Structures are given as structure tokens and as C-alpha cells.
Amino acid sequence: MLSFVDTHCHIHAAKPSRKDFTANKWHESGRKDPEELLVSAKKFGVSRLICVGTDLEDSRDAIEFAGKNEGVWASLGIHPHEAAKYKELPSAEVEKLIKKPKVVAIGEVGLDYYYEHSPRAAQIKLLEMFLGQAEESDLPVIFHVRDAFDDFWPILNNFKNIRGVLHSFTADKEVLKQGLSNNLYIGLNGIMTFTKDENQLEMAKLVPLDRLVLETDAPYLTPKPFRGKVCRPEHVVNTAEFLADLRGERVEDMAKQTTKNACNIFGINF
Predict the structure, then answer these.
(1) Which of 77, 112, 117, 121 has the greatest count of CB atoms below 10 A from its CB?
(2) What are phi and psi of 125, to 5 degrees?
(3) Which residue ranges in the chain fall short of pLDDT 70?
(4) How do residues 72-113 score in pLDDT, each as one tens digit?
């Protein structure tokens, strides 16, 4: 069986005690046990995954879940949608959490001007705080950036030696070029299997295999042929198969190289 890494999921949010939007999406699908989701993923060859934090409480859950389970790591971050919740920068709490075992990245953090659920100024302040933490900790960053690259690149370039992943990449050729030149990997997920945008598919072909990582964003962005159902980590296999066919590559090579890439960027011996 081929081995895959889901570099971006939220299965930790499935625990029964949670009542937030992501948890409800899991619960409405009948999924109320993160460990069960992990066992299911491993049956399909997805033996390693990263649980990505979207605010401090969610990040604590991700870190706790990673600490209890082999093959699971966590990232610490505040999604740009959540920026308005933090009237003061939570620098001290972030510094404390970043030292926890199995925290391998900062994220997801960034800018989202498409929905703009939080004021741009609040998003920018948080992003700058996390980039400063990334500099100090030498951790990679998982970036969520949507319709905001004109502001994102100048901010990024104010910091040194930042590396990471452009999560859920759907941008254009110029953004791809900028991302690669800024030492970033490109995260592709189930969107590629159902998009009708030919430009997005062309970009997926142009990503160098040695800079590509696979992700699900589970429970979101379910790939074909499972549209209409909740996304699970094992669906990363379907995305890999689609991308390999699209790019004219063997799925075996896709699995091997993207696993190696995940090891390189997150510093984990897979």
C-alpha cells in the first residue's frame, strides 16, 4: 500500500464536547470521534497527518490530540477570519503553546480579503505577530491567503528566513512564481478534482513535484467522487490520483515525493 501524508486537516475538532462550526460539520455527518477518523485514514495508507489550528482554543485541541496519537502532529495558529476576536495580541500564550511537544508549524495564519470576516488591520497585526514567532522558533508557516497577495508579499518580506506552505492554492501564475521564490511549498487539495477553472488546473500542472504537498482541509473541500459528503483524511488519496493523472505522473511517484516534501518542510522523519 502506498503511503500518504495529509498536511492539513481538522479532525481534532470532531470531539463530542465541541459546538463550533467545524465540529458541527463533523457531528452532522455522524463523526464524533477523532480517533475513529485517524484509524479510518490509516486503512487507506494515510498514516501521517497534521492537525491545523484555527484559533487558540482549537490549536490547544490539535496539540492535545497530536500528543495522544502516533502519526499526528499539530500546528498553532489563528485563522484570519478569527482575528477580530483578539483585541490584544496573544503573544505570551502563543509563546507558551509553541513549545509544546509535536507542534511542527505555525498556522493557519494569513489574510482573507474575500470574505473579510475580520478587519484587514486586525488580520495584518496577527499575521505580523505570527511571522515574528516563526522567525524566533524557526518553524514553518501554513498560510491562508485569499484575494490578499498584494498586501501579503510586502509583509512576508519584512521577515527573514520564513518558509512554509501556501495552503489550498488556487491563485495565478505570478503568485505561484512568487511563492516558489519565497521558499514556500504549494498545498493542493480536493478543489482540483471539481474546479471548472482551467487556469487553476494549469497552475496545478506547473507546481514542481518537489515543492508540492497534499492536503484535505477535512471536513471541508471534499474531492470527487465524494462530493456531498464530509471530507476525511483518506480522501487525500483521491486528490493524489487525480493530480498524478492531470500531470502525467505515476501516483507512486506522487505519493513518494509529496511524503518526502512533507518531511522536508515540517522537519518530521516520516
Answers:
(1) 77
(2) -60, -45
(3) 270
(4) 999 999 999 999 999 999 999 999 999 999 999 999 999 999
pLDDT in tens, 179-190: 999 999 999 999
4-266 — its CATH code? 3.20.20.140
99: amino acid identity, one letter: K
Cell numbers given for 96? 507558551
CB < 8 Å & 24+ apart, contacts of 244-250: 246/192, 246/201, 246/204, 246/205, 247/204, 247/205, 247/209, 249/209
Using CA atoms, how far residue 104 sits from 5, 73, 226, in Å, is: 14, 7, 30
Give the containing element (helix H, strand E) for 34: helix 34-43
pLDDT at position 65, please? 98
The three-state secondary structure class of 225 is coil
